[in-house]
Amino acid sequence: MKYSTDKDLDKYLIEIERQGWSIEMSRKHIKIRSPFKGYLVTCSITPSCPYAHKKVKADVERMLRKEMEEIRNESTKHSS
Question: Rounded to an integer, what distance in angstroms lies between the CA atom of residue 39 and that of residue 71?
Answer without folding.
Answer: 13
